[in-house]
Write a structure and sequence with these properties.
Oligomer: single chain
Structural class: alpha/beta
CATH architecture of the largest domain: Orthogonal Bundle
Strand order of the largest sheet: 8-7-6-11-10-9
CATH superfamily of the largest domain: Hypothetical protein af1432
CATH class of the largest domain: Mainly Alpha
Order of helices and strands: EHEHEHEHEHHEEEEHHEEHHHHHHHHHH
Number of helices: 18
Length: about 500
């Protein structure tokens, strides 16, 4: 039901009757819309926000019974109460009216007291029915929202402002066909510096837009553990939110009613519903916010788990270098090189993050390699090199079969395979080599050439790029995936920056 004057559509082909109804009802606070035939009545019902229809039965053309049936048949108008005003008094006529969907009857000549009583009763019924329909609709939206959150949840992509945007789109009025929803939504967020950001949402050309608001107003708020939700109509707003509503007038917002979620970290104000608000509206907002805050909490907990996972991976990778000349920075650099290449190749953020972390396990199998072979100053014998090759297989056994380390397992096995098939342990060629193995191959080779070894000096960035792109007899450009090699050339400066940042 509309928040202002209830709108009554009076339908009668007799102008005198329409004038009489207007004279009776308008002084009692009702807004009157008049129609003199059935077709005009149906047109008005489809366009205006009608709260109740007073309908004459005997009209030329489309009679009252047909008008009533059409109103009750349409999804948009079926819940509008219809009172038939008729001089017909037979049981058969009343049955026809009931079958057409009429809620009540008033006999001509009508009594003013009877009209007021019946209108008042049906408006109360409509208000309750509207709230029931709204509650049911909100339940459906809440369920759909919850399911969507669960299906699409990714802690790596969680963003509080994006989640608030989604909530606001569920509750705000986006067009004239949504009068029961608020016109404006204001949100206050506690930022990382301990200050507050205010955002204003409203629909512009049927599209919800967010803008920053320079609102400076103090609010008496509970802490996050004692957050509360409120629904306030005009009288309560003027008494409990007087300062707040007064400050909004500077932004051309005249607060007639509001529903709000209040806590120190987050406040949401849904302002000016097209009707009086109730605790049911507050429950809807509270439920939506609860969904969002749960997901934020879950994202934070999962991030902690991810951080612990990453720490464990790095610890294992460093352990593998205990018997090697490489430092822990080598494993970090290889992961960062791979991330540079993956980003340039257009891989998604999830892949980039996984390879940055899991590429550090490329040489984890060296844990099982004899130290004297790993730090031998001269060339390795054929037997010694055969032992070194086995670090790829040892890495596979160490990493095991956990699905979260699938990429690390693949990298450990294939990062020494070469595009031309001359690599080890399986002599894979071309695209038979997993993509992540091809990335680590060039990243590991770059870093190995930059670092000094007992059997070779360190090369500078320029010389390493020459060796990788042109070859030096031992390392050849044909060893690398041509597309990855092309991207390496484009990102070589980034490789140099990573090395210099984490040198040693």
């Amino acid at each position: 039901m509309t928040a202002g004057k209830p709108i009554i559509l009076c339908v009668d082909d007799n102008t005198a009757n329409l004038i009489l109804l207007d004279a009776i009802l308008a002084p009692r606070g009702y807004e009157i819309i008049k129609a003199q035939n059935g077709r005009e009545a149906l047109d008005l019902v489809g366009k205006a926000q009608i709260d109740i229809v007073l309908l004459d039965v005997m009209m030329p053309g489309i009679d009252g019974f047909e008008v009533c049936r059409s109103i009750k048949k349409a999804e948009k108008t079926r819940n509008i109460p219809v009172i038939m005003i008729t001089s017909l008094s037979s049981t058969e006529d009343r049955i026809r009216g009931i079958e057409a969907g009429a809620e009540d009857f008033i006999s001509k000549p009508f009594d003013q007291g009877e009209i007021f009583a019946r209108i008042s009763m049906l408006l109360k019924m409509k208000s309750l029915n509207d709230r029931l329909i709204s509650a049911y609709s909100n339940m459906i939206e809440l369920n759909a929202h919850g399911e969507q959150l669960i299906r699409g949840f990714n802690q790596m992509d969680f963003n509080l402002k994006n989640q608030i945007d989604r909530i606001v789109k569920l509750i705000i009025r986006q067009d004239s066909a949504m009068p029961d929803k608020p016109q404006v939504v204001l949100v206050r967020i506690l930022d990382t510096k301990g200050g507050y950001e205010w955002f204003r949402y409203e629909s512009v050309n049927n599209r919800v837009e967010r803008s920053t608001v320079a609102l400076d107003v103090s609010l008496d708020l509970p802490d996050d553990k004692r957050s509360r939700t409120m629904s306030c109509n005009r009288f309560v707003v003027e008494h409990h939110f007087k300062t707040f509503s007064g400050s909004l007038r500077d932004f051309n917002i005249d607060v007639k009613n509001l529903v709000c979620y209040l806590s120190n970290a987050l406040c949401i104000f849904a302002i000016n519903y097209g009707r009086d608000v109730s605790r049911y509206d507050a429950a809807v907002v509270n439920s939506l916010v609860a969904h969002m805050l749960f997901m934020r909490s879950l994202a934070a907990e999962l991030q902690e788990i991810d951080d612990a996972f990453t720490y464990t991976v790095y610890s294992l990778a460093r352990a593998a270098e205990a018997n090697d000349e490489d430092t822990g920075n080598h494993i970090l650099r290889v992961g960062l090189y791979c991330a540079v290449l993956a980003k340039k190749l257009g891989m998604d953020d999830g892949f980039i993050d996984r390879i940055r972390v899991q590429a550090t396990l490329h040489d984890v199998g060296k844990i099982h390699m004899p130290k004297e072979i790993l730090i031998k100053p001269g060339s390795l014998t054929a037997e010694e090199f055969a032992i070194v090759k086995k670090h790829t297989l040892a890495g596979v056994n160490i990493i095991g079969g956990h699905p979260r380390l699938r990429m690390a397992k693949s990298i450990a096995l294939t990062h020494h395979e070469r595009w031309d098939g001359s690599g080890y342990p399986n002599g894979l060629k071309g695209e038979d080599i997993p993509f992540e193995g091809r990335l680590v191959n060039i990243a590991d080779q770059y870093d190995a050439l930059r670092n000094p070894r007992v059997y070779k000096p360190a090369f500078d960035h320029k010389r390493v790029c020459e060796i990788i792109t042109e070859g030096d007899g031992r390392t050849m450009s044909k060893h690398f995936d041509p597309e990855i090699l092309r991207v390496f050339k484009e990102t070589a400066a980034d490789f140099e920056a990573v090395y210099e940042d984490l040198e040693g």
